[in-house]
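Recall the central idea of this unit: under ordinary conditions, the amino acid sequence of a chain determines the structure it adopts. In this exercise we apply that idea directly, starting from the sequence alone.
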Amino acid sequence: MGALDIGAVTSHYKALARLVPLKAITRESDYRKAVAALEALLDAGGGDERHPLAGLVEALGEVIESHEARAHRLPESSPKEALTFLMQQHELKQADLADLAPQSTISAVLSGKRGISKQLAAKLAARFGVSAAVFV
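Accordingly, the structure predicted from this sequence is:
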């Protein structure tokens, strides 16, 4: 393998970066741009690992995921507070979780009279798309 042509790499990177943001996202407008670019790449078939753009999709996805982990982090809280917060964010009432546990169980958890079991934590995690560790 020959020496890396830094000039060529720089030129190609600048051209690519004008179209696809591959640096750390610091503003909401950059986030929206990155998501739009990822959607366009996926629509073009980049989600298929054999597609020539698959590596670019993976890299951009990691940039977006990193931003989301920083920007959309749940506040440090008790399991009860986390459940209350997530229910508010998703505009849910206790009855909306009836498919996960009896309403009396959800009520007892929200009032602090009962903890969240590992089984319920797993169900809540799946419902809200978070780690079960949030609820234990």
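The mean pLDDT is 91.
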